[in-house]
Amino acid sequence: MVTEVGAERDRDHIQSIERGFAVLLAFNADRPNPTLAELAAATSLSRPAVRRILLTLQRLGYVSGGDGRWSLTPRVLSIGQHYTASHSLADTAMPHLLKIVETVHESASLGVLDGAEVVYAARVPVRRIMSINVSVGTRIPAYATSMGRVLLAWAPAGVVRSVIENSDFAHALTPATVTSGEELQRELAKVREQGYALTEQELEVGLISLAAPVRDAGGSVVGALACSTSSARATAESFAADTAGFLVSVAQEFSADLGNGYR
Predict the structure, then answer these.
(1) Can you say how many angstroms the Cα of residue 119 is from the centroid of all Cα atoms in its chain?
(2) 3-state secondary structure at position 60
(3) Residue 144 in contact with residue 177, Cβ under 8 Å?
(4) What positions does the domain HTH iclR-type occupy (predicted)?
(5) What is the C-alpha separation between 70 and 89, in angstroms, rounded?
(6) Spatial contact of 251 and 225, defined as CB atoms under 8 Å apart
(7) DSSP conformational letter for 224
(8) pTM above 0.70, yes or no
(9) Is 84 exposed, middle or buried (0-12, 13-18, 19+ CB in 10 A)?
(10) pLDDT of 132
(11) Burial class of residue 149 (count of CB atoms within 10 Å of its CB; 0-12, 13-18, 19+)
(12) Looking at the DSSP assignment, which residues form a beta bridge with residue 118?
């Protein structure tokens, strides 16, 4: 028998919201890029219901899909336990960013991908090397940055296609900026081969930047550690020779703190 209080609670219960959160929470270290069928099995919901929820969440910017697989976007960091998780990522990053700054004596940052842009999730500045004001929450185009290329190099093909489709290659930020999706794809292949990204004066004249991937327990790239310098203090070649190996090792230590099996 349903009590009056129980009936009132049932009337106030919005099942569609419950199902939406069930789908969001089904993404985890074991299922970082699940298929629709995997999400249906994990939530005990029908495939049509999961499909409608995913399309709604995609329209709202909380998930992205491509090649039959889905992934969370950084926008989920603004809600519930995912917001707490974002603080954990930034907090975990801080000692590693400080280590980079103390060793290299250049600014260090943590970036995450949101749509076609990289969002600064944590940063330890040394000196002002960019004309734009860079702070936590600042957004920069992914295609023209070392952090963006690291995040895209190991991203699903559908994510890369979406970034290419939503990037303005027609208006180069500097004379050195890549000008096509094909050129970007070649750069991403180079990043995968060498294990880090190097950009020289593509976002801003005079700016040289290195980035290395940060992986979670499931091996997915969840962030990019970056270190930047000025062309007045180093060449791209010398900066990479002096710093790339160290930056990759710090990113691996950071990944280990997130449960990845580097150590």
Answers:
(1) 8
(2) helix
(3) yes
(4) 14-74
(5) 21
(6) yes
(7) E
(8) no
(9) exposed
(10) 52
(11) buried
(12) 113, 140
| SS3 at position 49 | helix
Quick one: how far is CA 53 from the chain centroid? 23
Distance in angstroms (rounded) separating the CA atoms of residues 252 and 85: 19
Instruction: Give the H or E element holding residue 80.
Output: helix 80-104
Please give the C-alpha separations between residue 103 and each of 23, 29, 240, in angstroms, as whole numbers: 43, 32, 14
Q: Which amino acid is at 209?
A: S
**Alpha-carbon gap, residue 48 to 131, rounded angstroms:** 49
In DSSP notation, 127-193 reads: S--SSS---TT-EEEGGGSHHHHHHHHTS-HHHHHHHHHTS-TTS-SSTTS--SHHHHHHHHHHHHH
- The one-letter amino acid code at 60 reads L
Identify the band that residue 247 occupies on the pLDDT scale cut at 50, 70 and 90.
very high
Return d(Cα 178, Cα 27) in angstroms, integer: 34
Do the beta carbons of residue 61 and residue 74 sit within 8 Å? no
R_g of the chain computed on alpha carbons: 20
SS (H, E, C) 96-119: HHHHHHHHHCCCEEEEEEECCEEE
Question: Looking up tokens 């919901």, which residue turns up?
Answer: 45
Q: Which amino acid type is present at position 235?
A: T
* 65: β partners: 70
Output the CA–CA distances (angstroms, integers) from residue 165 to 70, 160, 161, in the order listed. 18, 9, 6
Residues 102 and 173: their CA atoms lie apart, in Å, by 31
Cα–Cα distance for residue pair 51/46, rounded to 1 Å: 9
Residues in the chain, overall count = 263
152 in Cβ contact with 113 (< 8 Å):
yes
